[in-house]
């Protein structure tokens, strides 16, 4: 990257410096006709980049900006590498994964003082490509941008999107598609699969250095523990319990929870076959390749726990003086996952239902426990229900009695079991404003996402821009955005998503 932006923003390479065995130096492929499709101006500024330089005078990207955002001319100090890791894919260990079409450019410290990885996706084949072409298509990269920014706006820990650049190349999938490169940002790209790679290498010193790197840069509080590596495991268990609880509360289905897609930082990563649930159904699966439902909505907490057990196995050499004590320590720490997840989910659901601190645990549990069966039985749209419930409760009681209350009545007209539930819930005096702060009105609804991606692939970014505007301010109802709050039409579906490779 040239110009003033290069002079004022430098990248460091702490991961490469600390753990060269987990990297392969590599160069991004040169795109034939790069053109900026979308740039996250506010995030760029937070990271210390000049959005005007990145965007260029005509909005299609300056030479300097495109050099950074495609990795072909990275900033000073960058050492682009493909990261090595392994992972359990749908429960089966694959000993050779790694960044097959991605590069870690380096780390930038923004004005806030916090370090962030700059990472590319779709930048060309690497030694880990395993027969793939190393490229990405416009649609899946716009999906990751859109959904990750929506997750950030919902307050859920996530990687974020800096840009999507159309490459001008053609990518062959089920059909020929326009190519693109995503630039994403994260606290770290260290995964459970990174630890599995180090453990399988048989190099305990490498495993120890990786664990120390994770402690120093992601969970420094663990350094104060009497057993820091056990403290690292305990903290990863905790952040993952909180993360998956937040997914469940908003109806998010990740779709591909392999161990290489679980971060040590507790950030959501890899928005391939992901989606937000429409009608509530615990067995919901959107991924085209998850034919057995391993990563169904209701299975996500169990899969997270399973992945953490694999993390514990990788860490065992560091967790005790002998195998028996290490296994015991790991089991005790992992045993707290369900309690931590349950506490996080319960607290979040109380807020979604507007149940303040004065509502007893038993009374709250009674209304919460009855809700999932009712929602599934009547195929209620998950997001609309909670927001509609808040709106219904805000109406005068004499105009909003029983199941005929506002938006909720439109979803569940003349349903006796719902009427009884509503009466019980109202008896707890729910706080409407709390509900509105916790229940989004706008999410990346699947039919709108597909509409935006199809248009983007055809060169029309307006539907994408409008949807992004809605979902990045998800709690504030705004005139003119009514269609973004509505469930999918009956003609939409069944819905399937694809990983993009």
Main pleated-sheet profile: 6 strands, antiparallel
Radius of gyration: 23 Å
Number of helical regions = 19
Mean pLDDT: 91
Number of strands: 12
Stretches where pLDDT falls below 50 for ≥5 residues? 1-7, 397-405
Could you give the distance between the termini?
29 Å
Helical amount: 40-55%
Beta percentage is 5-15%
Structural class assignment: alpha+beta
Tell me, briefly, the overall form: globular
What is this structure's SSE topology?
Layout: H1 4-8, H2 14-18, E1 23-25, E2 35-39, H3 41-46, H4 51-55, H5 63-69, E3 81-83, E4 87-89, E5 92-94, E6 102-109, E7 115-121, E8 136-137, H6 138-153, E9 160-172, E10 176-186, H7 192-200, H8 204-217, H9 228-250, E11 252-253, E12 275-276, H10 300-315, H11 323-334, H12 337-352, H13 361-377, H14 382-394, H15 406-411, H16 416-426, H17 432-438, H18 446-457, H19 462-471
Antiparallel strand pairs: 1-3, 2-9, 4-5, 6-7, 7-10, 8-10, 9-10, 11-12
Description:
With 501 residues, the protein is of the alpha+beta class. Among the domains are: 4-186, no CATH class; 192-346, no CATH class. It is 42% helix and 12% strand. Strands 2, 6, 7, 8, 9 and 10 form a 6-stranded antiparallel sheet that branches. Strands 1-3 form a two-stranded antiparallel sheet. The chain has a two-stranded antiparallel sheet with strand order 4-5. Helix 9 (228-250) packs antiparallel against helix 10 (300-315), helix 9 (228-250) packs parallel to helix 12 (337-352) and helix 14 packs antiparallel against helix 17. The longest helix has 23 residues, at 228-250. The radius of gyration is 23 Å and the shape is globular. The model is unreliable at 1-7 and 397-405 (pLDDT under 50).
């Amino acid at each position: 990257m040239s110009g003033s932006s290069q002079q004022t923003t430098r990248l460091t390479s702490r991961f490469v410096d600390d753990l060269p065995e987990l990297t392969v130096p590599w160069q991004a492929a040169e795109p034939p006709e790069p053109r900026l499709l979308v740039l996250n101006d506010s995030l760029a500024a937070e990271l210390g980049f000049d959005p005007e330089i990145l965007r260029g005078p005509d909005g299609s990207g300056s030479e300097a900006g495109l050099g950074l955002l495609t990795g072909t001319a990275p900033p000073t100090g960058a050492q682009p590498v493909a990261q090595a890791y392994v992972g359990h894919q749908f429960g089966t260990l694959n000993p050779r994964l790694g960044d097959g079409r991605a590069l870690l450019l380096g780390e930038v410290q923004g004005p806030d003082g916090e370090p962030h990885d700059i990472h590319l996706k779709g930048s060309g084949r690497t030694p880990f490509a395993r027969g793939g072409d190393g490229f990405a298509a416009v649609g899946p990269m716009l999906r990751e941008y859109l959904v990750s920014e929506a997750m950030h706006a919902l307050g859920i820990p996530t990687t974020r999107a800096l840009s999507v650049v159309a490459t001008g190349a053609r990518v062959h999938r089920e059909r020929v598609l326009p190519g693109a490169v995503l630039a994403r940002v994260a606290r770290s790209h260290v995964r459970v699969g990174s630890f599995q790679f180090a453990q399988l290498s048989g190099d305990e010193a490498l495993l120890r250095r990786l664990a120390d790197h994770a402690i120093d840069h992601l969970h420094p509080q663990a350094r104060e523990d009497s057993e820091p590596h056990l403290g690292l495991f305990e903290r990863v268990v905790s952040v993952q319990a909180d993360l998956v609880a937040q997914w469940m509360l908003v109806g998010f289905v990740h779709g591909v929870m392999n161990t290489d897609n679980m971060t040590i930082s507790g950030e959501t990563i890899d928005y391939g076959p992901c989606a937000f649930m429409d009608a509530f159904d615990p067995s919901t699966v959107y991924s085209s390749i998850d034919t057995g439902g391993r990563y169904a909505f209701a299975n996500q907490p169990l899969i997270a726990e399973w992945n953490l057990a694999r993390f514990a196995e990788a860490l065992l050499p560091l967790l005790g003086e002998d195998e028996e004590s290490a296994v015991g320590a790991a089991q005790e720490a992992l045993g707290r996952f369900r309690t931590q997840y349950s506490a996080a989910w319960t607290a979040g659901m109380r807020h979604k239902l507007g149940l303040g601190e004065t509502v007893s645990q038993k009374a709250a549990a009674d209304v919460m426990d009855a809700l999932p069966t009712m929602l599934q039985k009547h195929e209620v749209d998950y997001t609309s229900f909670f927001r509609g419930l808040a709106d219904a409760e805000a109406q005068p009681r004499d105009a909003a009695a029983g199941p005929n209350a506002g938006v909720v009545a439109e979803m569940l007209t003349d349903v006796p079991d719902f009427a009884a539930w509503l009466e019980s819930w109202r008896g707890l005096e729910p706080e409407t404003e709390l509900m509105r702060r916790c229940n989004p009105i706008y999410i990346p609804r699947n039919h709108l996402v597909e509409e935006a991606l199809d248009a983007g692939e055809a060169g029309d970014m307006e539907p994408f821009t409008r949807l992004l505007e809605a979902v990045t301010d998800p709690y504030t109802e705004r005139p003119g955005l009514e269609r973004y709050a509505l469930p999918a039409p009956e003609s939409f579906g069944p819905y399937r998503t694809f990983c993009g490779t």
